[in-house]
Structure formats: structure tokens, C-alpha cells
Design a protein that fits this description.
The protein has about 170 residues and is an alpha/beta fold. The relative contact order is 0.22. It is built from five helices and six strands, in the order E-E-H-H-E-E-H-E-H-E-H. The protein is globular, with a radius of gyration of 14 Å.
């Protein structure tokens, strides 16, 4: 049975097996959660990402997919990078967002991770409305078969925390 919890905190300060990064397709760092993870985790994460780009992910990581690297100096064993979709008012991309969570849990299972910290994927600069992002995230992790024992949604501000904490879990 997987336990789902919500905290208002900085995801880079979590002590878990795996931290999920809301990455961009380049895997080479960016803003928001992605930039914070790369800054605090140090150069080992970027070096791992560059190795991935040089091998299997020459064109980058596709939206809705996930891949793991070292966690560098973070208090975790791995960072699982997933690329969320940019929100569109004219095209339903909710399945791609749900795939980010399913794929991240699949990678966590492959690694043997038992505790995973998730951000609110796509709810920052990618513009996904927070309430809908929270609904999709919580429904998806609740419905996904996984050996992960504890999933923590780490929300940076009160608005995000309130949206996630309001979801049935």
C-alpha cells in the first residue's frame, strides 16, 4: 500500500530515494524546479544528463517520459527527470501529464526506490492550471501499481499545497 502525503517545502531538501525533476526535454537544466535541482545537486547531475544525451536521448527526452540520473549532492539516491506537457486550452494533453507520473513510478520501481518526492509537474512555467494539475497527479499516482511505499508531493507555495491537499487520496 502506497502512502501519499503533501508538504509545503523545497523539493531539493527532501531525504528520499528519488526526487522527480520537472525537466525540459534537453535534460540540461532550466528554471524552476529543474534549475533548483541542478544547482543544489551539483555538476554530477548535469554530467549524467549529458551522457544520456550523447547516447540514447540524442534528441532529448520526449514529453511524458522519464529517465533517472544520479542525485549528486542531494539527499537522495536518484533524480528521475520527466518532461511535462505545456498546457493548451485548445488541445487535451492530460494523458501526457498523467504519463509523467506513471513513467516516473515505473523508473522508480526499476531502480528499487521506495520513497519518491514529486513536484507539481507542468504547473509552473508550463502553465497547467494548478487545480487540474493536482487532480491529474493525485489520481494517477493513486491508480498506478507501484512498489513505492511513500509518495510525497512537495509543493513550493501555499496555492499549490492547498490544491494538492484538497485532492482525495
Amino acid at each position: 500500500m502506497t502512502t501519499i502525503t503533501f508538504v509545503r517545502d523545497d523539493i531539493t531538501r527532501q531525504s528520499v530515494d528519488a526526487i522527480v525533476n520537472a525537466a525540459n526535454s534537453s535534460l540540461l537544466g532550466g528554471g524552476g524546479v529543474d534549475g533548483a535541482i541542478h544547482r543544489r545537486g551539483g555538476p554530477e547531475i548535469l554530467a549524467d544528463c549529458r551522457r544520456l544525451r550523447a547516447s540514447h536521448y540524442g534528441k532529448g527526452l520526449a514529453t511524458g517520459r522519464a529517465v533517472a540520473t544520479t542525485a549528486g549532492e542531494l539527499d537522495a539516491r536518484w533524480v528521475i527527470h520527466t518532461v511535462g506537457p505545456v498546457y493548451s486550452a485548445t488541445e487535451d494533453r492530460s494523458e501526457l501529464l498523467a504519463s509523467c507520473y506513471r513513467e516516473s513510478l515505473r523508473v522508480a520501481d526499476e531502480l528499487g526506490a521506495r520513497t519518491v518526492a514529486f513536484p507539481a509537474v507542468s504547473a509552473g512555467i508550463y502553465g497547467w492550471p494548478m487545480d487540474d494539475a493536482a487532480r491529474i497527479a493525485v489520481e494517477t499516482v493513486r491508480a498506478t501499481q507501484t512498489a513505492v511505499e511513500k509518495i510525497t508531493f512537495v509543493l513550493f507555495d501555499k496555492r499549490a499545497y492547498d490544491a494538492f491537499a484538497a485532492q482525495p487520496h
